Amino acid sequence: MAFAIRVILVISLVIIQQNSDAQELIKLQNPRLINCRLDKIYQFGDSISDTGNCIREPLCQSHSDCRKHPYGMNFYQNATGRCSDGMLMIDFIALESGLPLLNPYRDRIANFRHGVNFAVAGCTGISAEIMAENKIFNTAFTNSSLTVQLDWMSSHFETTCTTDCRKKLKKSLFLVGEIGGNEFNYGLLQGKSMEELRKMVPIVIQTIIHGVKRVIDFGATRIIVPGNFPIGCVPIFLTQFMTDESNAYDEYHCLKDLNNFSIFFNNHLQQAIDEMKKKHPNITLIYGDYYNAFMWFLRNAVGFGFDKNSLQKACCGTGGGNYNYNIRKRCGFPGVEVCANPSTYINWDGIHMTQEAYKYLARWLIDDMLPQLNCHI
C-alpha cells in the first residue's frame, strides 16, 4: 500500500502566519485524493481537527496547552493551536486532495477559498445546556459545540454563496467530526458511570445526524461522519483507570470496558448513518472508521518503525510508569520533557497523537474511503 509522504516545499513563506493569510504551498508527490477533484473541504470537530479556532477564543485559549511550545515543534516550530507536535489528519487529507491546509474559521483575515476548518479543541457535540443537565463540566471552557460550528458555517455561506451554494459545493468534501467524544471523556474523568454515559449516546448521535442534515440542506453531496477512537488505548484513561486485574485489558493492553463503550457509540452512529443513506440515496455519506484505523495502526506500528516499548506512552509528558502521563503536569507545563524522537511514538501528550501517527491513520482512512467517494481513479 504505497503512501508517498515526502513533502515538496514550493514557496518559502511561513506557514499559517499570524495576522496573514500567506500559506506555504505543500505538495505530496502522489496525492491520492486528487482524482476526486475536490475544490473545498469543510471540517467540523474538536481537538483531533482544530487548526487554530480554540486559541482565538479567549477562555478556550487561556485553558489550552496547545497554544504554546512544544506543540507544533515539528510544524515549522510554530504552535498554531494544533494539538500535536505537527500536522493532523485533516492536514494530510487536504494535502492528499491537492489543496492547501485549511485555515481556522476564527482567523478572520484568513483565506477560505479552499474551505474552512470550524473545529474547536475541547468542544462537545451536544450543547452546553445539555452538558449541564447531565452534570458534566467542560474543562476546556468552550461552548463552541457542533451546533455553534454549524451556525458559523451558515454565516460563512451567507457571505460566500447565498443563492448558488448547491452549485458551488458540488465538488466539496464535508467532515462532520470526529465530534461527540469529549462529553464522554469529561464524564469519565468526572466520575460518571458507564451506564450514565450510555444513556447520553442517543442525544449525541441525534445531534450529529442533525448536523449532517444541515450540511445536506446547504448542498453538500460528499460527507464523511467519523466515529470515535478506541479510548481504552489512550494514556490519559490507561492512567486514570489503571488496575491490577489482568482481564480488564485486551491483547494490546487497552482497557476492554472503555473500548466496548467506543464500539457501542460507533455502532449507534453507523446505524443512524445507514438510515440517513436510505433517505438521501443521491448523497455520498461515508462512516469514517477511526476505531479500526487506530487498531490497524496499533497492530502494525512496530513494523512502521515505532518504538515497541512506547506504544502507549506519551512522548511529551511526565510521571514515568507505563504511560508517561500526569494530568497535573501535562505537556507544555514547566519541566515536562519531550521524547527524543516523536516520530517513534504514537501518542504525543497523553490524549492526542503525533504527526507521524496521524499520517498513518490518514493513510488507512483514505484507502477505506476512496472506493466510496466515487472518484475517477
TrEMBL record:
Signal peptide extent: 1-22
Keyword annotations of the record: Glycoprotein, Hydrolase, Signal
UniProt cross-references to InterPro entries, sorted A to Z: GDSL (IPR001087), SGNH_hydro_sf (IPR036514), SGNH_plant_lipase-like (IPR035669)
Family as reported in the entry's similarity comment: Belongs to the 'GDSL' lipolytic enzyme family.
The protein's name: GDSL esterase/lipase At5g03980-like
Source organism (scientific name): Solanum pennellii
